[in-house]
Each structure stands twice: as structure tokens, then as C-alpha cells.
Amino acid sequence: MRAKKTTLKSPHPSKPPLFGTAKNLSIGRPDRDTNLTLLKTYNEKILGIDPKLMEAGETGKSICTLPNILFQPESQSEILSATSLQPQYPPLSADPTSWKADLPTRAQLYHNGFGKPTKSHSFTQTACADTCLHLILKSGYLTDTDKQDLFAGTNPLVQHLDNMRMNLDTYDFRWLRNPDTLWADQLRISKEKSMAMLACLFHYDLDVSLLMRYLGNNYTAAHRDVQQIVQTITPHVDPYLIPHFIRVMTVGCPAVFNAESSRENSLNYWRAGNNKSIAQNIDAVMKTMNKEERNKFVVPLSAWTWRFIKNIHYTPQHLLILPPKKDRQISDGSMRYDETSISVNMMTSVETELDCEFGTALNRVLQRIWNLRITYPDRDIVIHANDVKSCFRQLKHHPDVMGAFSYILGEFLFLQFGQSFGATFSPANWEVVRRVAEQLAEGLFADKSLRTKHRKYLDRLRFHKKNGSTRAKFVPAKACSKNAGVRDDNGDDVNTPHAFFVDDDLYADIFIIERIEQAVAASIEAIFILLGESDLLHMQDPVSFDKMEELIVAFRNIILGQVIDTRKMTIQTPVEYVLTTVHELQRHWHSKRKTFKILEIEKLAGRLCHIGNTAPWLHFLMSHVYTSIAAALKEAEAELVQNHKQFRLMLKNARKARANQPKRGQHDPESLALSFAQSTTARMVHHSNKLFCINKTLKQELQLITAALTSPWIDTSRPIAHMIPRDPSGTGWSDSSLDAAGGYSLDMRFYWYIHWPEQIRRQTLRYIKNNDNNTLISINVLEYAALIINYVAATHYFQINPDPSDPYPSVLLYADNTTAESWVIKACKKSFIGRALGRLQCALMINNNVGINVAHITTKDNVIADRISRVKRETNILPELTSLFQDFPQLKSCNRFLPSAELISLVMQTLLQESVPDPILASRQALCTPGKITT
Description:
By secondary structure, the protein is of the alpha+beta class. It has 38 helices and 23 strands. Strands 21-20-17-18-19-22-23 form a seven-stranded mixed beta sheet, with helices on both faces. A four-stranded antiparallel beta sheet has the order 11-12-13-16, with no helix packed on it. The protein has a three-stranded antiparallel beta sheet with strand order 3-8-7.
């Protein structure tokens, strides 16, 4: 329950009263009638208590004696669930609390089972009157008169706390440990269970860590026999992973969390509450929380208890809505409300965790497909994926830090037992299980009994009807030192490897049903071993079998949002995504549009960059998009500086923070102010509502991008051969001076030389000492042009010397200029001439089957290309080359490549800024006649 909106809020909503302070004790009485009215409303609407009971002084009456008042089941399944969980109570004895003698003590809970206390795990909130009230009231120190004075002078929730404490004292909550066999039928969170949780929490003096330890079972994944799991996985897993695995399974997450929050800091988060997306979608949110609760990932308590529970923090929630994906509820662990705020992510550290490497999963699958094609050039290769349900939730917080992740939704306070989405350490801790699962699934491939064991799941697999078609045509893959196929030294196929992208297990194999089933069975078994066998009577399966069945086993599949085609050996952004982007361009970025906001163009750039992952030429069409974003950010910042005094002060601190970056966990006032200023100023700039003009160049670029993405002859797919590590099909070297440029390749048997015209040389640093008029042609630009010409020469070589076994060759070009090398891969974003040359590179990459990679070489090692580029005139080329051939006899097998007149004209015009090439028009022309070879 959020303080801003609760019906129990203070008459001074800006700062809800602290119940136990002396100030409230002295001034609370005048508002008592108002607060009693609010409490009656809360009890009636939220707790289901008859407001007449308030008048009789029975607020907080035990649900043992008033079951029909506090627990009103709304469905048959809820009645059955409560009946199945609760034990049959024995007849009342003289001592209604005698059963408590059998409860585990605090010491027993600390030292038995999951989450034993460690020096690495501690979270506390500064103690205050609110969090001490339970102990004071329980102690019996206050007389009845004292208590009446206390209740009369404070918020009615204090009396409510005492009444609930006393009436729940006899409530037998032991049924919470009973197996829940009707968990799957739960339609809503049971208020009976919430009250039972509160009774247990009262017994353990509002210590949430003891509540978690007491509940055990599915709440702490107690069903996993970690010792047996370790014995099973040890033969298959790297030894360094074993200690990490034991820690996350027995101690909890994260590896280290020692933090303290002040009472005021936690109250600020509680007062601010959740992101507005929660209130706007509260029905959907509560359906999600019902699933979370029935799966024992969270514990529900009455929302009003948050104030009184010690050592908890409030972590705001946010509902991420990104159609067509499912909505995802995440913890906003980095949110800060002012410069004193310390968010939960600021309290954590991932320095002691494993580095996350799941980003390599897709490339590993592509390399697996490439090696399969090497070994099986005429067989279908199929792709499939398995999914782990609620992967982060499968790992549990350490009980002593779990309270830091609490939050309120609707009428419930939720304690987050499983890891939360949004915490910095959640991916790092899952990384342990992810790596173990990969290695274990690969090792289990040899166990042929798994197909029989998991037959009921394997029968749910669906296979594409065209798998194994005899009419299919396959693009070949060429072996090299980095890719030798999928057979071991004995000539047998290696076990199918698995690549987990977070919770998605990806695997590929030739279309032999037995091998596919074996790979799937190994994946299922690995997940079952690590997270628990299927036990639908008591919990959900750790494997998402619905998703496994939904994804058809096929030679062409959508994996991680990309379409992989193993027959064409290509990867492509789904057509639907491209069409949606084109629709946005045509509808919202048409030629008549005049202005844009920063967030709008950043969103568009994000979509285009995603498409550019499989159509890399697109990155070189976006220079004006990047420039417009940078200019808009600068202008928005300038306007804020001019009109916003507070922004000016924060910007000063932000610049100071950038110069002396505060370390994570550094919570002194100055560091907090600096880091808050840094994040706040950035957010204010990016969320500026200022309208910026769409200039002529940006408008033309957007129209050009739209034309490229809608062109029927431009291919937006990318060969797998250009995305995986492999030996280059050819290597080349290039260099440029202020007089000329040159390059060569021994394996592609060419060299080339271009003398820069006088007009270009007069715009170099030799004649222009600064770039005030933006006419300087830098050496970086000339080196970039040399790399482009070398790429054209390589393209020409493979056009006239095609290799049927390598239809998608890839060249490695060496240069001694790091800036130019970076521009070839990432595109230039600042230099105008560099961006213009990027347009030319884009033209050369469209529909080009030759891929390009670059590497750095020192000037000393680039001696041949350097000597070619030092030839000052074309008339000197023959004698200079004669000397060069004598010094380097290997060059004698090379012939001279002469770039076409069209290409030379494009390069010269671009360097002189006379015109910027239209890549769509230039593409066909440049690739059809790139040049010729002369002897």
C-alpha cells in the first residue's frame, strides 16, 4: 500500500507520521476520529472486517475465532486449497499456545537448511519507534493505561498492530509448511495465507529472514539435493564452477551483500511507491503476482505491516510493456528520487560474481551450424530451443538480505524470495547455472536412456514437414583452421553442444530425429538435475514445455529474434520487424514532417540499429541520424542550462562526477550528490520535450533508408560466413600518404596505386594547418579511402575467381590507422568526409557476397604498402615497383588492379565534398564494374 494513495495516509500527506515518535504522541489525538474512519474503510474494503467490530473494540480479531469475517473464499478452488493445506486442529487445551513448543528456535533456523548466516550477507534498516513497537507491546512493559494512552495519541494502526499481534498469538500457522497440492488451481492470493504468514512473522518478532528460513520447502528450493547434484554434474563440468554452484544453491544470492538503509531513505521509497505503469495495469499485475505467489517466489503480507517490520527496504516496481512481447514486471532497482536516495542496486556489487557471457550464445550456434554444414554438405540442419521457466526466480535471495527487495502491490506487501528482475546481480548469479547447464547437457548427450525417460515430452515435439526434402539446395561451408567440422579424432560426431542465452537453450544438429530427440532430452535432463525433477503435484516444471512444443524443429527458425536459415546459411531480421519499421518511417517520418523529439528519434535509431545487425550496410546510412541526435542533445542541454537554475547546479556536479567517478557503494553525501546529478541531468536532457527541426540532410537520409529497406533488389540478410570466426578467404594491406595511396594482397595476387590529385593534396595538413572552414582532408580520411579501394580490389578478385566451396568469402584488411579501421566496422559519426565515404562503403556492401574485417598493423610491419603509397607521381611507379619487387620477390606474382573510372570519380568527389554519393544508385554501378587487372 503506497503512502501517497492509501486510505490510511496522514492528514499531512507530504510526510506520513512516524507512529512512535514523541511528536506524534503529543499531537496525534485531534486526528483520531478521522483516522478511525479511514481504518474502518480499510478494514471493510481490504481486509473484509465488519466495521461494526471497530466500535466493539475488536479491531484485528484473530482469524482463528472469526474465520468467516477475515477469510471469505471467492472460489471453490480457494476453499479446496485452504482445506488441503490446513491441518485438523485438536480440541482446545488449557494452553492454546502449547503447540509452539515444537516450533524451531531462532538458533535452529539460523543453522539448519538454506541460507546460513555469513559475513558476506547482511541488510539492516536503521531502527526506529515503528519497528520497535511490536517488541514493546509484546514485552508487557506497558500497562493497560499506558497502552490506551499510546493508542489514543497515535495512528489507529498502532492499536491494530497490537490487536492483530494478540489475536494471532494462538493461531496455528504450521500448515504453511504443508505441501500445497492444489497450487495450480489458485485463482487469487489467499487472505487466509496472508494472515497465517503474519502470525508466523509475529512469532519470530517480525524478522523476515526467520520467516523465510521457517517456510523452507519450495520457498527456498529445499527439494534440491545439492550434494547429490554436485556428484552428478562433477564429471561433466569445469571444476571452477562447482563452488559457485554450491554457493547459489545453499547460501543464496548475491555472493556479497552487506548494506544498511536509513529509515528515512526507505520511507522515501515507500512514500513514492511504484511506477505509474503499475496502477494503470493493476489487474494484470495482480494476476502476475498470483502466479508468483502460487509458485512460492514471493510471500504475501498485509500491506499495512510494512512500517512495523524491521530491516526491510522498498524496491519500486515497473511494468515493462513492449508489444508484441508479453508484459514483464521488473524491479526498478536503480531508481533514485533525490540526491540522498540510495537505491537497492547501489547497495549491491557484481565484482565477486562471474562475468556474464550469454551474449556469445548466438554466435556459438552460428558457428555450430557452419561446422555441421562442413561435415554434412547435403543434409538438412535444424534448429530448436528449450526454455527455463522463471530462471532468475529459481535462485533465492539469502534470507538476511531478502528484505531489501520488498514492495507493495494492491493490498499486499510482498517479500521477494526468488531473485528479482532488475537487480544488478541476478544475471551474474544465473550465469553460474547457465554455464553448468550448457556443459552438463552436452555431457549427457551420450546417455541414450534419456530418450526413453523423457519420451512423453519428446512426443510433443513438432517437426517441419519439409525437413529432409530431397529437392533442397544447400549453400556450402568451407573448412579452415578454426572450423574443421563436427567429428572428433575418431571420426565420430561430437556431442551436440548447447548455448544458453540467459534462459533459452539453443542447439542445432543435422536432421536425424534420434539426434534431435537426444539433444532435447539431454537439455531437459540437465535442467531437471539442476533445478529439480518434474513434480506437478507440488510445483511447476522448471522447463517451459509449452514453448518447446510451440517452436517447430525446422531448418529455418526464429531464434533470439533473428531468422536463421541453414539452407541459405544466412541470418536476417524478421520481415515483420522490418515492415513495422518501414511503416513507422512512412507514417511518422514522412517528407512533410518538420520536427522531432529526442526520445522519438532515439527509438527510431534503436530499431534501425537492430536491423543493421543483419544488414550491416545500414549502419553507414545513419550518419545524419546520429548527428541529429547528438545536436539535439547538445541543444536540449543548452536550453536547460539557460532556463533551469537547478539543472545548472546539477550539471556542474555531473561534470565533476565524470572527472572523478564515484565508486559503487560509495555513499558519502558528496558522492551521492554527484552521482544523482549525473543521472538526473542525463535523464532530463534525453526526456526533453523541446521540438527540433528535421534539416534537409536528415530528411534525405530518412528517405534514403526507407527506399533501401523497401527496395525489392536489396537483400537485408547476412551470410553466416561473415559473422563467425574463420580464416579469411583473402588478406590485404593498404596505406596512404598525403601524396598517394597503395595496397596489395599476396593471396589475391594484386597491388594497386593511386596518386592523389593536386586539388586533394592542397587540402591536406601540408597546406592547411587548421580546419576552420571544414575543408581539411585528414590522413584518417585518406587511410579510410585506401581501405575502401582495397575492399573493391578484393571484391573484383572474387568476382573473376569465384570459389564454389566458399560462396561468401571474407577478407581481412590490414592498416596502420586505428581511426580508419574503426570507421570500416562501426561507421564514422563525426567527420563529414568520413561519413560521406561511409556512404560509398555502404554502396559497396549492398548485396556484396564478400565480407570485410579489419586488423591493425604497425607502420614498421606495413612496409610494402607504405612504400607503394610513398610514390609521389604515376610516372615514377614503374622504377619504384622494380625496386620494390627486387626487395620483396613475393610481389612478382601480383598484377596491378586499376579501379574503374566510376569508382575513382566517386572517391575523389567525396573527398573534395563536391557531392555525397547516393549508395542505392552507386551500388550496382560500382559493383558491376569495380575495375580491372593489368599485367
